Amino acid sequence: MVRIGVLGASGYTGSEIVRLLASHPNFGIKLMTADRKAGQSIGSVFPHLVTQNLPDMVAIKDADFSNVDAVFCCLPHGTTQEIIKGLPKQLKIVDLSADFRLQNIDEYEEWYGQPHRAPELQKEAIYGLTEVSREEIRNARLVANPGCYPTSIQLPLIPLLKANLIKLRNIIIDSKSGVSGAGRGAKESNLYTEIAEGIHSYGITRHRHVPEIEQGLSNASHTKITVSFTPHLMPMSRGMQSTIYVEMAPGVSVDDLYQQLKTCYEDEQFAVLSEKGAVPHTRNVRGSNYCFMNVFQDRIPGRAIIISVIDNLVKGASGQAVQNLNLMMGIPENTGLLHQPLFP
Description:
- The protein is α/β, with parallel strands linked by helices.
- The chain contains eleven helices and 13 strands.
- The strands form two sheets. Strands 8-9-7-10-13-12-11 form a seven-stranded mixed sheet. A six-stranded parallel sheet has the order 2-1-3-4-6-5.
- Helix 6 links the parallel strand 5 and strand 6.
- The model has no long low-confidence stretch (mean pLDDT 96).
């Protein structure tokens, strides 16, 4: 049994880790932290988890890591670097914040407004897009779990860029997320009356996932890529769709794009190419670790439209984190992640 600590268990990604590990045969939670909820049980904070017999949450300053083998760090962006720097060196760590995703610490400071506080750890961190960096993740001690938007975008685009099937310019990405993607903190902009019955565009041209997206696409193509990315909050609890518009390389057809994705992902369990013509919908992946994707011919000659859907809290966060720690601990990658999507 791998003994697990969940730092930040009172947030959405932390509670989703707890939910997923309830059916994991190899991982057992021994420690949970939540500063504002210290002393409370997980069932009192999340009644849907009341059946779980787990230790009460403690403040992180009171956490005892002597009985822990691995940690999921579900803390807010900007708070994680110093905490991870102070953890015992033998721990395996999957960080669900953005603090170790950007390889360039100057870029981190530019987009997150503060200097990186653990640059030596940044050199060690492996970016954990599982289907792309599987072998590096196996041998990692610290994995930076990808953001939800970047996961939904990079999974369909990276195989096409590596095969030189699409042009590097004019990549336009329109993404929509359930409100849980904005976190559990109390914010006026996330109130029901602010979000319901409408679409809320935000972070236009300056969303913090932009450098993460461009980093992954640039690494895949070995040249700098700049994208046009606009995110939106939708009046739903969970789910994410990215609609991506690309220009195909000369002589390339939509069938070529489809065949490349099919070849790349035919042996993957969680990255799934839909049947030709089938439109992926967020409701088809709700509660699961799947990413469904498909590609369509645009009416504009030479262009294609790619649709990718995930559950932002599972494949976009906690599910992918479990997938990564499975690899790091030498456990079959799909362990504890075979929940089928919830419908209706």
